[in-house]
Amino acid sequence: MADAAPRLKGLVEQVLGTPLPVRIRAWDGSQAGPPGAPVLVVRDRRALRRLLWKPGELGLARAWVAGELEIEGDLYAALDLLSGLIWERGEDARSLGQALRDPEVRAAVRGLLRLAGPVPPPAPPREEVRRVRGHLHTRRTDRRAISHHYDVGNDFYELVLGPSMVYSCAYWRAPEAEGGTLEEAQRDKLELVCRKLGLKPGQRLLDVGCGWGSMAIHAAREHGVSVVGVTLSQEQAAYARKRVADEGLTDRVEIRVQDYRDVADGPYDAISSIGMAEHVGADRYLEYAQDLYALLKPGGRLLNHQIARRPERDESAYRVDEFIDAYVFPDGELAPIGTTVTQLERAGFEVRDVESIREHYALTLRRWVANLETHWERAVRLTSPGRARVWRLYMAASALSFERNRIGVNQVLAVKTPEPGGSGMPLRSRTWNG
C-alpha cells in the first residue's frame, strides 16, 4: 500500500507536538496534509535517515542538497511555514533530549526509524565543507573559507548577480514593480558609499574585500580617486583586473590578492568594507577595526557595511547557523549592531552614522533568486545540482530572515577623528542623501 506520507505526517507531528503546515508527498506517491498548501516532496527515505541521525537544520540541509527533499509551490511560503519548526524552535541536543523523555515521542521516533529503514545515512553531499583542525580566522583558514564561497565560478556569479557583479545589499530607491532594477539599485548603493566617504579626486581609497571590482571601478571612474582593492579570492581578482583594464582604469585601480591584515602601504583617505566583515569573526573583530584605523589618515572615514543578527538574551547561547556554516559561509559569524559599534569605538573610531537598510536586502535577495531560477539549467551545468540547490535555499531563506527582522544589515560610517577633535564632517547630517 502507498501509505508512507500519512504515516510520516502522523509520526512527525507526534514528535514535534504540532500539526505540519505543509503537505507531504512521499517516495511511494502517497500524499497527506492540508490541501492547497505548499508540498514538501520526500523523494527518498534516505532523507529520513539523515534527519534521524542529525535532527534539525543540518539534517534537512543535507537532504535538500542531495535532492532527497524538494518543495513544490511557492518556495518562500513553504519556508515561512516551516521556519517555526526549524529555525525558531531551538532544535539543539537539550531540547531534543527533553522531548525524548516523553514515551509517545520515543515511540514515534521508533516508528520513523522503521519507516526510514535500518541503513545509516549516506555521507554528506560533497558540497559540504570538510572541516580540518586548527584555529578559526587565521590567514590560512580564512583563505580556504573565502575560496569555498567565492571561487564557485565567475560565470555562475554573473547569472545570479547580473551585470553589476555586486554581491551585497543593493539600495533601492524604487522596487522593480515601480520601475527600479537590480543594476540601478546596486549603482545607487555604490554611489551612496562614495558619498558617505566624501570621496574627492586625488584621494586614496582602500576597498577591503573588493569582490569583482565594482566598488573600486565606480569610485575611480565617478569620483577620481586612486583605489587599492584586496580580496582573498584568486578568481575574483582575475575578473576584477580584467574589468579594470576594460574600463581603462589600470593607472588608478590596483587589485591585489591580499589579506587585509597584510596591507602596509597606508595611510588612506578612506576605507570601504562592504559585506566583508561577516568573515572576520568575533574573536578577531577588534583586531580588524584596529588594523583599519591604523591605515587611515587623521580625519579619514570608514564605511563598514555588514549583516547583523538580533542579540540573544544570553549571548553564550548563540550558535552559528549550521546550514550556512556547512554549505555557504564557512566560519562566518554575525554580531549585533551594538557589538559592532562598540568594537569600532574601542579601536578609536568615532561612529558618526548608522543606517539600517534591512528591507533593501530582502528585495536584493529575491532578485538574485529570480535570476538563479531563470537560468537554473545553466547554473547546474556551471557548478553542480547540489551547489545550485544550496544557493537557492540560502538566498530564499535569507530573504525571509531579512523580511521577518531575524537579521539586518547596516552601514556604519566611522571617522578617525583628528586632534583636537574636529571630525571634518558636515554640520548637517546625512548630506549624502541630498
UniProtKB/TrEMBL annotation:
BP-aspect Gene Ontology terms: lipid biosynthetic process; methylation
InterPro entries: CFA/CMAS, CMAS, MeTfrase_dom, SAM-dependent_MTases_sf
Domain spans labelled Polyketide synthase-like methyltransferase: 156-400
GO MF term set: methyltransferase activity
Chain coiled-coil ranges: none
Keywords in alphabetical order: Lipid metabolism, Methyltransferase, S-adenosyl-L-methionine, Transferase
SMART domains registered for this protein in UniProt: PKS_MT
Record-linked Pfam families: CMAS
Matches recorded under CDD domains: AdoMet_MTases (cd02440)
Keyword Methyltransferase: yes
Family as reported in the entry's similarity comment: Belongs to the CFA/CMAS family.
The name this protein goes by in its record: Cyclopropane-fatty-acyl-phospholipid synthase
Species name: Streptomyces cyaneogriseus subsp. noncyanogenus
